[in-house]
Amino acid sequence: MNDTQSLIAPPQAINVKRITLIGLGILTSLTLSTGYIALSPQVEAAIAEETNQQLTGEDGNVSWKYDTTTKTLTFTPKADSDGKMGTHGIFDETPSWKDTSKCPWIKDCQTIEFKSTGNGSDVKFCILQPKSTSNLFSIANFDDSPKNYPFESVSKVDLTGAKLDNDGDEFSFMYMFAGLKNLTSIVGLDTFDTSKVNDFSYMFRNCEKLKTIDLSKFNTAQATDMRSMFSGCKSLENLDLSSFNVEKAENLRAMFYECTSLKSITGIEKFKTSAAEEIDCMFQNCSALESLDLSKFDTKNVTNMGAMFAGCKKLKTITGIDKFNTEKVKTKQTQQTNQDDAAGFDKIFSGCESLEELDLSGWKTSNANYMVGLFDGCKNLKTLNLGTTDNFATKQAVTGQKVENMFRNCNNLQKLTVGKSFVFTNTCGLRDTTWKKDGTDQPTWTTKQLIGTQDGAASIYDGDATKDTAEKVGPGTLVLAATTPNPNPVKPNPQDPPVPTPANPTDPSTPVTPSDPSTTKPSNTTTPSGFGLPVEGSNTGSTSAQTNQATHETPAATPAAPQAPSTPSASTEAGPAHVNPQASAQSEEAHTASKSRAALPQTSDPYVPAGILSFVMGGMATVIARTIKKQKRTK
Question: Measured between alpha carbons, how far is 122 from 125 in angstroms, rounded to an integer?
Fold first, then answer.
């Protein structure tokens, strides 16, 4: 097959001889353009006939044509007609231009355009019927298979030649552009009169490359369903929803789910959500959002808030969250496949790593029995106010054991206010440390005492307690207790000479005055809890440093073993007149070993004997020094 034949050959087997003969007879021009040859209509028709492809057709009173050269699908109103496209609902016949068996070119189509005809008062548009706008570029079905989104290569949709039917009552934009994962441009959407559209669900779902959308003239006053409207729009950075009216919207679930590049949502501060019942997963995994103003949100009818802000790693402030009415929030499992399963209060703030303070004292949770992972992963959360009244109740959730990991990985939590109807469980994941009541020094309680243990020890927290004792804790604000100094510190022998401590642990040549062990607070080492959390006061590795810094505790200084004063050698006193190469190499090896030992991690693990540890570390340092020496000799 020659180059010309290979370029015009469609995916399916064709009669090459026949196409070549037709081309010789009626091909009017061959123009090489971006890797394709421009074919005459006759040749395209011949190819279509041989391969059983349909390149032209009708949809109601609109004609359509696919150009194999430009990979463009064009719609044009038929002459002497009203230009109305056919009506295609879920149970209706699929229009010819979406029939993948006859139009295999669908997967290669890059541009879809609607063109008008005529001028002035005689201009004619392609009129979209109410049913046709739903699943406009996808196959209406009840499953979410990729086969239902055939226009996978489309990058541009031009709607300037299309209008909505003014005679229609209710329109649905459900799945209108869904699945166009390479779409980067939508032209003419601002000309649509959307005042009769009541369903915007999944409209732009998984338009992964779409960076901007002009919704400035969208009228959403009749909208009742906006679930997953922008879900999966991973390239959107800014959205202007100033024109949106959501007062009738009952479902806002996952509206911005997985908009991972979204930094701002203009107009959301005006959202009045009095009709909303489901707002779960609404901002889930909007990992670039830093602030949200939800001060106008009315949540009195909301029944599900699960995972609403989950995965918002950079979110620092949520204005209005303290005013949320949560009285009707209860168990309700989601059945959506594009978001994590969440119910009630599950995972609402899970993974909000940048939040430092939350005031939920006004939240009423008596009807909720799903609170799994509510604050899980809020790594920088320092202050959490759940109120001292009956508002924030977990008793219902505890009955069903649905409060697991509520505080898991909240490793910086320093201030926690709980009330009369709050119940701790040994699976809640509260950080392992020592607590006291704000404004007092005694009594103090360990986390194990507060939440109980898995081996049967009950929690000492009692919401009905009016006085705190060593055996009972009542409502109020818990804060971290200061570390208690060891009453019997190990005192150094006054006859032992002081051992200089390097200012730089890798440079022994810069000694500083050692700290006085009597003024250093010992660490509050506790037995590992088994809760999967860092052990408070542990001095093992970098985790201990972070834990001690977070709790403002001072790690104990490990007393250095006394050493005899070194005696200067005769050669040193006589000056460096003669240098023994072998002695110099040994000195260098010793100095390198000294640096390596200093650089090794220190530990205060009481289960590792000091002699064994020193032996292992010394051996490692010697091996390192000899390796460096060998490398230098090789060079």
Answer: 10
